[in-house]
Design a protein that fits this description.
This protein has six helices and six strands. It has helices spanning about 1-35, 60-65, 85-90, 95-110, 125-140, 160-180; strands at about 35, 40, 65-70, 75-80, 90-95, 150. The protein has about 190 residues and is α+β, with helices and mostly antiparallel strands. Helix 4 (about 95-110) runs antiparallel to helix 5 (about 125-140). The chain is about 50% helix and about 15% strand. The protein is elongated and about 95 Å long.
């Protein structure tokens, strides 16, 4: 009887570990899909990094997703400072310090414009993109302290029908493997 209990505990450990890996891979793929499974993330309105992946500037948020097995459950989490606001959505209150940062970004961007010999701006693609970026930072800097910036919800971890289907498939595969490994030679 003790042998059966040990086998059941081993199968249960394998199931939890396989779920942790399988669902973790699915959450990582959300960054590639730019969606929470089939629910597409809202596009950016800012001209920064045009055409780039949403939520993947440095890859820090993506790499921060962790999982931990606790007794009979698995917890997925991220300690990244921006993880909660992106996963759940919300509002950020503009502070004076943020405004100073926005002004800094505006001046550093505006100073990067390509110039002709007479001092006027060039009309090349890079300069036009920089002018859009500078306009964005200027608009951010001109916001009143206390106003709010709305961050749309872009879930990358959480429960969904797709997660439940993945978990169900992993459990069925592990149980089938266990049942098929049992020797039913009864004498």
């Amino acid at each position: 009887m003790a042998d059966i209990d040990a086998q059941v505990r081993e199968v249960f450990r394998n199931i939890l570990n396989d779920i942790r890996v399988g669902v973790g891979d699915e959450f990582d793929q959300n960054f590639e899909r730019q969606a929470f499974f089939s629910e597409a993330w809202q596009r950016r309105k800012s001209p920064l990094r045009p055409g780039g992946h949403i939520l993947v500037e440095t890859g820090g948020l993506r790499r921060s997703v962790r999982s931990e097995i606790k007794e009979s459950s698995i917890v997925f989490y991220s300690e990244h400072p921006a993880a909660a606001i992106h996963n759940e959505g919300g509002e950020i209150v503009v502070t004076e310090r943020m405004k100073r940062f926005f002004w800094h970004k505006y001046y550093s961007t505006a100073g990067s414009f390509g110039r002709k010999k007479d001092g006027s701006r060039r009309n090349d693609k890079r300069t036009l993109q920089l002018s859009d970026e500078a306009d964005f930072w200027k608009a951010m800097a001109l916001m009143k302290a206390g106003s709010k910036i709305r961050i749309p919800q872009r879930r990358f971890i959480g429960t969904s029908p797709e997660v439940e289907a993945t978990v169900r498939e992993i459990i069925e595969d592990n149980l089938n493997e266990y049942v098929n490994s049992i020797d039913f030679n009864i004498k």
